[in-house]
Amino acid sequence: RSRRSPTSDREQPSSLRRRRNLPEKSLKHSTSPTLDTDAYTPPIAVVLAAGEGSRLEQTRKGTPKPALKLLGLSLAERTITAFTAAGIQRFIVVLGHEADQVRAHYEQIAIRRHCDIDFVIAEDWKLGNGASGLAAAEKLNDAPFLLTMSDHLIASSLIERILLVRPERGEISL
Length: 174
Prior knowledge:
Elements (H helix, E strand, L loop, with lengths): L13 H7 L23 E6 L7 H4 L8 E2 L2 E2 H11 L4 E6 L3 H15 L2 E6 L7 H7 L1 H4 L4 E5 L6 H9 L10
Parallel strand pairs: 1-4, 1-6, 4-5
Antiparallel strand pairs: 2-3
């Protein structure tokens, strides 16, 4: 009768078993590359907050989607909190629908979270996320940036991993 070691395939999470079977080339991003912190400037996070939130219309009851609360924090504040925890302190929030209310909400978040939030209006916000994203282009001045939506919940650890690999000029990380 043989005993299984604690590292046997059956006892490891499936994600670890799959990772071991990947070619070495696929693992290059799972290591921790050394960053030249003297030359490194954390990118700006562009937050798309221009949409109507029509899928949540019955839940919203007049509250802009970014200001909807989930377990005591608004969707917008959860997003900002995750990015600030990962070291991002500068944000461009793209506004559209209910722009004044959404701006006021983010201004309060900036005060509470001690971060820098700038705003841009997407005049064509009804055309969708692409048009909203383009509205931030002028403020970015070709600076590297992370793109997120005001209502997408993301772990700060994932943001940190994305920041480990800096794409070359003209490239993107997904």
